């Protein structure tokens, strides 16, 4: 059975985009919740939530790059993943500005940056395509 799943990303090339797109959809949906529905998330703990979610998003953005390309220029692609996280964070804050009871915060974008950086560095260190058979590409 596992011989047929040697590499998930080779068999299903679009699969590498699905985790990031699903998480972006969840972030977009959460940004649309009015401020009265988010009373449980109080500062400064909201920054920890932002950093954690965007750390996952940073890892998922790193999946977008094929392994041979990543191996050639890992820091460039990690940087691109962080930039994608920041752009997503800015767009999230823009979307949130139209939601009643919610406000735009530069601190949230900063937490998004830190989270994306942590996720990308984590992916850079772990290198799942070298450790886990399911991520290996030919």
Question: Care to give the gist of this entry?
Answer:
This protein has 138 residues and is mainly alpha-helical.
Write the layout of secondary structure elements.
Layout: H1 8-11, H2 18-31, H3 45-62, H4 67-72, H5 74-96, H6 106-126, H7 128-131
Q: What does this protein structure show overall?
A:
The protein has about 140 residues and is mostly helical. It has one domain (about 15-135). Helix content is about 65%, strand content about 0%. The chain is built from 7 helices and no strands. Helix 2 (about 20-30) packs antiparallel against helix 3 (about 45-60), helix 3 crosses helix 6 and helix 5 (about 75-95) packs antiparallel against helix 6 (about 105-125). The protein is elongated and about 45 Å long. The two termini are about 20 Å apart.
Quick tags:
mainly alpha; 138 residues; elongated; 7 helices
Record field, number of beta strands: 0
State which percent range the strand residues make up.
Answer: under 5%
Helix percentage? 55-70%
Distance between the termini: 18 Å
What's the helix-strand series? HHHHHHH
